[in-house]
Design goal:
Elements (H helix, E strand, L loop, with lengths): L2 H14 L6 H8 L3 H13 L4 E4 L2 E4 H8 L3 E8 L5 H10 L3 E9 L3 E9 L2 H13 L12 E8 L2 H13 L8
Antiparallel strand pairs: 1-2, 3-6, 4-5, 4-6
Helix pairs in contact: 1-3, 2-3, 5-6
């Protein structure tokens, strides 16, 4: 299979995928290395195909938008230690929220944003496991724990509930 055909097939697979697809899965399907797939994704992005990389794999931005349609979307500024990360995510998911991303403001690079797509307890456990397994540091270490999450909820009611719960846990960044 030619590289261009493989890239077109990758787009087709992502269009049909109900969940993110890992680079290793695509590599196995096409009998190429994971690095070839990473390069293919970069070239597809250069063709203005909006592909989001999450810790769970790749997905099309259009699939994310469709999944979030009809939901309330807001941002919350948070401040916590690495040890409180799981608690923060659990509070959000338990109240019906989904964590789209995390962003920090770096003094040199400006806003740095990473897609998370954490929607379930399983997603939380996978994220925590990956952070532990890869000895990863959270983006918020660049800003002494301060970060912003984009959250989607069924309605503003759940968003406000999440806000109150994060405040009670001492995680919501206070405006005072």
């Amino acid at each position: 299979m030619k590289a261009m055909d493989r890239r077109d097939e990758i787009v087709s697979i992502l269009e049909e995928a109900p969940a993110p697809i890992k680079a290793t899965e695509l590599a196995s399907k096409f009998a190429v290395s994971r690095q070839i797939i990473v390069g293919d994704i970069a070239l597809l992005r250069a063709r203005n195909i909006e592909i989001i990389a999450t810790n769970q794999g790749y997905l099309l931005a259009s699939a994310m938008k469709a999944a979030a349609s009809g939901r309330y979307r807001g941002k919350l500024a948070c401040l916590h230690s690495a040890e409180q990360a799981e608690e923060e995510l659990q509070i959000i998911v338990d109240a019906g929220g989904a964590i789209e991303d995390v962003e920090v403001e770096h003094p040199i690079y400006g806003v740095i944003k990473a897609s998370l797509q954490i929607n379930t307890d399983d997603d939380i456990q996978e994220f925590v496991q990956q952070m532990s397994q890869h000895e990863g540091e959270m983006l918020s270490t660049l800003t002494n724990g301060i970060h912003i999450h984009t959250i989607t909820t069924p309605s503003i009611k759940e968003f406000e509930q999440i806000k109150a719960s994060l405040k009670a846990a001492g995680i919501l960044l206070s405006e005072n």
